[in-house]
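Hello,

Following up on my earlier ticket. Below are the two sequence lines again, exactly as submitted.
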Amino acid sequence: MFLRSFGLNEFYFLLESLQWTLALTGVAMVGGGIAGFLVALMRTARTKVLRMAAATYIQVVQGIPVLMILFLSYYGLSLAGYRLPPIVAAGLSMSIYASGYLGEIWRGCIQAVPKPQWESGESLALTIPQQYLYIILPQAVRISLPPTVGFLVQLVKNTSIAALIGFVELTRAGQLINNATFQPFRVFLTVAALYFVICYPMSQLSRWLERRLHVGSRH
Amino acid sequence: MPYELRLEVLAQYREQLLDGLLMTVWLSVASIAAGTFFGVVLASLRSVRGGPVRVLVDAYVEVIRNTPFLVQLFIIYFGLPTLGLRVGAVTAALIGMTINLAAYSTEIIRAGIESIHKSQIEAGEALGLTQLQIYRDIIILPAVAKVYPALCSQFVLMMLASSVCSAISTPELTAAASYAQSQSYRSFEVYIAVTLIYLALALTLRGGLALIGWRLFGRPGGRAAQPTLKVEAV
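Thanks for your patience. The regenerated structure is below:
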């Protein structure tokens, strides 16, 4: 029998599928970012019911595996009559996953803005939306940059789980090539290296942002 | 025709699900123990020895933290046999989880060690403590106590991540769920039930770790127990 071997063509296939990993990360970041922002706002709202609802949502999303979110939206929604293509199921699940974590990260960032900032906004007769828009959020965004970039690394890595519902991103492409070549060591090390090339600079960026944010407040 | 939820089909698979649950618990507990142990060892080595040891430990931590757990599992389970090392699915899962968790705990504990002020160690020396006492009581224990909440979050994340071990046929909870749904065609019921089991597991693990933290360090672990060192482990 003639087996294909892992060569340049196979490498190009991996590179091509890397685009899908990045696309899925992008979808999850936009979807999860919007939902996560709402969750963070609810979590820091003045109404208790909103705070409780957001806290429960965060607890649940952070308490279940990403794979279960994927399975539930892939198999579950198809029962409800929606036959979702893997990209939609994967994008939806990764957005839900991201919203649970980003909501919690951003809640911390909003709460890290010192209380007198709120009070001075109020004493200037700003409405609550104005306080958010002009005083709190600009400062919270600055604080949120390092952990958000850090989470983005987790997100890129966790899109690999979408391979398990058949979405052809980098990891799934690796599985397909491995099935054709049976050179798992070479194939998956290459896959890992490609993830590393994406994730490592982002990790370093997150660290650099963190250091820059804390300049002057070091002991 | 509207879909009817039939949760009673789950009863048929309770044995498989229970076995899977026990496997998930066992994998989590074992990898938490081993991962923390290696984390303490590597973080200590890194802080005591400079030069090549530090470079190697840092490289290990960065490589593991910047590649997906699933791909790490594939390399261990499918890759190692081609080098002549045959590992079973459970062993592969255990190795993978330990290697992964050890990297994260090394990073977390390193941050804890670096937060110990030099004057603390000098105070220990002035009191005539031995090197071992200084290491244990002034460096490692306070360092771990400081980063305990971050460690706990990482433990819970690892337990949840163990669900992808089903992809290398480790017979844990998710694998049991996949078996049950392939037999019964009741995927929604099965996955809802198993999701709830994971949720219960996560809450139990968090509670248990908080209790352990209370016993060990005199305060609850979990999040926001008291202002703790910020570690970028999401």
